[in-house]
Amino acid sequence: MPTLFDPLRAGKLQLPNRIAMAPLTRNRAPDAIPTELMATHYAQRASAGLLISEATAISQQGQGYSDVPGLYGSEQLEGWKRVTDAVHEAGGRIVTQLWHVGRISHEVLQPGHRAPVAPSAITAKAKTYLIDPQTGNGRFVPTSAPRALLASELPEIVHSFVAAARNAVQGAGFDGIEIHAANGYLLDQFLKTGANHRRDDYGGSIANRARLLLEVTRAIADAIGGGRCGIRLSPVTPANDIVDADPQPLFEHVVRELAPLNLAFVHIIEGATGGPRELPERPFDYPALHSAYRMAGGQGAWMVNNGYDRASAMQAVDSGYADIVAFGKPFISNPDLVRRLHDNLPLAPWDQDRFYGGGEQGYTDYPRYSDKAA
User: Fold this and answer.
1) How far apart, in whole angstroms, are the C-alpha atoms of residue 359 and residue 372?
2) In the predicted model, what is the mean pLDDT of residues 274-295?
3) pLDDT tens, position by position, 111-143
4) How far apart are CA 92 and CA 51, in angstroms?
5) Cα separation of 78 and 207, whole Å?
6) For residue 161, what is the enclosing H or E element?
């Protein structure tokens, strides 16, 4: 059986190891434009089998937090091209995560300061992060009340995802994309009963609630090829005030429908994003989800995420359950995480106070492991 440190082909992506860097929002892209500092950050971590960029908005309407990057303007594409060039020069591979936040936004970030959009006009009990452009100080504030999208607006949402995917691979030099359909953002909002109370073809039944996600994914796979496309799902996370009444049949339907698209990978968040892997009040059978995908003919790499350490990641791959394991916070403070995991070296702690906003401190100033380290 392969190990965590063996190469893998995932669609059109040839990976030297099975360790991925998970998307990590860091709020260091003023005016939604990637910077040279971001290029340094990603290049430092290029030894990962696959880098997945921080979530990147497909449109201004898709923006939900201050100073997160976009993929809908020429300056944004130029900024990302500097990032991807730096990663490729360092020998890495990078895909970008395409993001529409839906209701997890604030009106000050929206075009014309209008209300954020959502499947239904239900305000999330959640917060977003705003940075004062005058002082540079950031703070968490409640999200704004959203309005429900009209069915006639949904083709434009699909178009924006496709345009961003084309921009990513054809203009910005990414090796592929990951569709963000997790963590209580727009596509996840359509999936789940807690946020979707629609009575049209995009609400009610499982097939209807999954419709937008599948339309987006099929359209992107047609545009850039399924082998350069991945998707991120989070069946039971409570992140951003999201919940579904019966997630097991919902997500088994989703992965069965994804199976024919020849995706590069399916990225599953197990449990609560950034929290416990087991939620007694929200039980879920992840091996059954994996089996549903494979039994439907899905060949994409199965990527698992949330709270894995060296031992559990190695076991997940050794057992044949997972093809790739994604690490988030450990990559923040360990740019050489692959080496540290391979050689069983100690991991450096992260500085949580510097996760969001700021400059190089807590971002590009974490050192690589030294043999002289204590």
Assistant:
1) 28
2) 96
3) 999 999 999 999 999 999 999 888 888 999 999
4) 8
5) 39
6) helix 154-166
C-alpha distances (whole Å) from 125 to each of 129, 195, 230 are 14, 11, 29
Residue closest to 81 by CA, chosen among 168, 176, 15, 13: 168
Backbone φ and ψ for 131, nearest 5 degrees, come out as: -115, 125
Q: Which of 185, 286, 308, 366 is catalytic?
A: 185
What average pLDDT does the segment 169-197 reach?
A: 98
DSSP state of 116: P
State the pLDDT at residue 372.
Answer: 46
Backbone dihedral angles phi then psi of residue 233, each to the nearest 5 degrees = -125, 150
User: Is residue 371 scored above 70 in pLDDT?
Assistant: no
* Nearest in space to 307 (alpha carbons), one of 290, 325, 323, 324: 325
- Whether pTM > 0.90 for this model: the answer is yes
User: Is 185 one of the annotated active-site residues of the chain?
Assistant: yes
Q: How many helices (H) and strands (E) does the chain have?
A: 11, 14
